[in-house]
Amino acid sequence: MLKATSRAIPLQDAALSTKSQNTSTVYLSRLASPSLQSFLQGNSFRLESIDVPVVYPEISTHADILLCQLGLWEKAQIFHGDPEKLARNYPGNIRYNAVCTGKYFIHNLQYTDPDLLAAAEAKAAAEHTSLTKIHVKQGYTRCSLLPVDDQSFITSDTGIAKTLADYDTDVLLIRPGHILLPGFDYGFIGGTGGGLLLAGRRLLVINGNIETHPDHKKIATFLEDRDIDLYYSKDSPLMDIGSILVDAASKPLQQPVRE
């Protein structure tokens, strides 16, 4: 029996899985690469974009400002935040910008929205798993940290990498920069991508040409070692779009009851 091997494939070279019957919803900025959007739509993913005018314009279309993905792959569910709780600037705009793999909840816990944390803990309890909360100084955690599996991550943030080294994690630390974010000097690796399931394979999908990053070969090897395929849109620049978040659940996440 042949073992499937992971691949790094430009989206324009990828064959669409026309038989796919995806029910997952993918949340991403409307500024995402056209080829990325076509790839997802062609594989039956439902695309949703957001607009959060209360935050500053450069991040107002970023899904990870208002939404948080709890869990990965088939366990991924989206927590929908309350835009009225957000403010224009940091730290008022980071309440939901956390990473939650199912095993770890990573954020600047000083500013985490209590309803989000309660939802993450409730989901872990329902799945009979233990959720470890990790405090990091970087409030834009999901922007800066790309989850690969329950305990594997990619980041250019040395502070996050140092903190995660104290836990049972594998972190690939890459060079900062080389990622566009209009209005800023550069963007961050977490904001370029996200993981989804397609035809039984785990895919990490990247918005833009990952080949332009000087550490792209290290990234590809890191994913290959975990049997995860890398798909990217080669015909557009590598750009931070506020993450690619996936809801694979058959029913909406039960939100905490507000009193």
How would you describe this structure to a colleague?
This protein is an alpha/beta fold. It has 6 helices and 15 strands. The protein has a 4-stranded mixed sheet with strand order 1-14-13-12, covered by helices on one side. Residues 1-5 have low confidence and may be disordered.
Features:
259 residues, single chain, alpha/beta, 4-stranded mixed β-sheet, 3-stranded mixed β-sheet
Secondary-structure blueprint of this entry?
Blueprint: E1 8-10, E2 25-27, H1 34-42, E3 46-48, H2 63-66, E4 67-70, E5 77-80, E6 99-100, E7 104-107, H3 114-126, E8 132-135, H4 141-144, E9 145-149, E10 152-155, H5 158-164, E11 170-173, E12 193-198, E13 201-206, H6 216-224, E14 229-232, E15 245-247
Parallel strand pairs: 1-14, 2-3, 7-8, 10-11, 13-14
Antiparallel strand pairs: 2-15, 4-5, 6-7, 9-10, 12-13
In brief, what are we looking at here?
The protein contains six helices and 15 strands. By secondary structure, the chain is an alpha/beta fold.
Q: Provide the gyration radius in Å.
A: 17 Å
Q: Could you describe the largest sheet, including whether it forms a barrel?
A: 4 strands, mixed
Please identify the structural class as seen in this structure.
alpha/beta
In the predicted model, the low-confidence regions spanning at least 5 consecutive residues are 1-5
Distance between the termini: 55 Å
Q: Count of DSSP E strands? A: 15
The shape is: globular
What strand line-up does the widest sheet have?
A: 1-14-13-12
Fraction in helix: 10-25%
- Output the number of helix runs: 6
Q: Averaging pLDDT over every residue, what do you get?
A: 92
Strand content: 15-25%
Encode the helix/strand succession as letters.
EEHEHEEEEHEHEEHEEEHEE
